[in-house]
Amino acid sequence: MNTPISFDNTEIAFAHKTNKELKEAKWLYSTMKYSTLVKLGTHLTPWVIQMGLPVKGLIRKTIFKQFVGGESLTDTSAVAQKLAKSHVQVILDYGVEGKEGETSFDAARDEFINVINYAALQPNIPFISIKVTGFARFALLEKLDALIRASNATSLVSCYNAALAKLPAEEKQEWQRVKARMQAICAAADKGNIGVLVDAEESWIQDPVDALTMLMMDTFNKSKLIVYNTIQLYRKGRIGFLKKSYEAAVARDFLLGVKLVRGAYMEKERKRAAEKKYESPIQIDKIATDTDYNDAVKFCMEHLDKIGVVVATHNEKSNLLAVKLLQQKGLPLSHTHVHFSQLYGMSDNITYNLAAAGCSVSKYLPFGPIKDVIPYLMRRAQENTSVKGQTGRELSLIKKEIERRGV
To answer: In this predicted model, what pLDDT tens digit does every residue of 79-126 receive, in sequence order?
Structure first.
């Protein structure tokens, strides 16, 4: 008989936290309830850091401690070891964003490979996360995306090849360097048997990222899952993209790796669509997003022989759906082609209760110097203010556990 999972069990959810840590989390989430305060903080913090004002200590002890694994790769070790005690794994994310130039791109490639080599020596780190914008010029991705959209070819890869043919010689060479960096990263992952989760980007640069990731899967996913693409279901039509990706995997005989997320750029996407007067790529409402997300989970569960899926969501219903489908099929919750993940510092009630039930689950753990991970931290602060009920849910669970402990 299958034992039901409850995401209301705070004893399991917060067993890893001391009373002091619980109270610190309560204070932080209580602060993030105030949207005006968060808005002011997200505007001022990057400027304050840039000016060199002495605020790093405060950031390190509060929001950085809550959402980031440390300033260096070795700093993440203590966090990973603590998570492992509760059977929670780690997805390492080198949290540097927004750097440009060939030297910076090569440095990012080397750092991604360094993270892979480190993860390969650890028992608790099955995946790392990468961003193609970490080693490719944004404007080049944007140009390629526009050319891909303008192509009349029948498949994404065909459109991609047609788009490449239209690039000037210098930019073709630049793109070859991007592709070579991606191949070097995936080859290191293949050697170390570490999964590479390729992050989703803005919709107007996503097509070349999808095509490049598909080509890497065709190379490295023949006999095992190494490369995973990220599909944002808050975008219209992505369930169709998932199905076409599956068809390509069947036709080319490779394993399709997918990380399913709802999305992270909603406000930016809608604003750009309005400014440039095109139809917003974002779903009309949350119900449509939830429907497509759950349909994507169902589709992946129906094709686990060919798909490896990371259910990366803080939505309790979607996580329970994935568990229920595994149970209905009589499959183990630790199925090698099914993994669950939530961001470090959030939704511990989901992560730790899934782990206690025997699921393969991880925390997405960014690391990097404070000044470099500020964009990530600001998104977490904004997310916890803007996502309906997220802060309230986190806070109510923390308060419930504090009350249960009587502290």
So the answer is: 999 999 999 999 999 876 667 899 999 999 999 999 999 999 999 999
Residue 49 β-bridge partners: none
- Domain spans, the chain: 69-375
pTM of the model as a whole: 0.92
Three-state secondary structure call for residue 79: helix
Question: Nearest-CA neighbor of 197 among 366, 33, 41, 35?
Answer: 366
Q: Which residues of 270-285 are buried (b: 16+ CB within 10 A; e: fewer)?
A: eebbeeeeeebbbbee
CATH number of 69-375: 3.20.20.220
At a CB cut-off of 8 Å and minimum separation 6, what does 214 contact?
A: 156, 157, 229, 245, 248
d(CA 237, CA 229): 16
Give pLDDT tens digits for 320-360: 999 999 999 999 999 999 999 999 999 999 999 999 999 99
> Would you tell me how many other CB atoms lie within 10 Å of the CB of residue 215?
19
- Cβ contact 360:335 at 8 Å: yes
